[in-house]
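1st attempt posting a full record on here, be nice pls
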Amino acid sequence: MNRCTRILVLGPLVAASFVTAPAALAAVPHIPPAAVPAATCSTSGVLENGKVHLSGGGFSPGPAYVYGSAGFGGTVEIAQNGGFQVMNVPPGQYSVRQGGELTQCSG
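the predicted structure (as tokens):
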């Protein structure tokens, strides 16, 4: 194939690929980044000893501060899996603060 024929044949094909490529990319569905799991916290039902267990998940590993309406409070260490447990605390409303985030406990 001589040079003029190649330009006449291949030119429109190359130009068409530049036109259709953005449309093809636009047709690909956008997948949002994975959401950071929301931290949760809960208390067990009141046990025979009158206490409850406090547990949570979805936190960042490291220290967090737990405080409750019954006067109980203190620092807990969040495990590598993002969870924690505090056993035998007085029943009440509890919250966990880690960084600037406050998580209310249910239960």
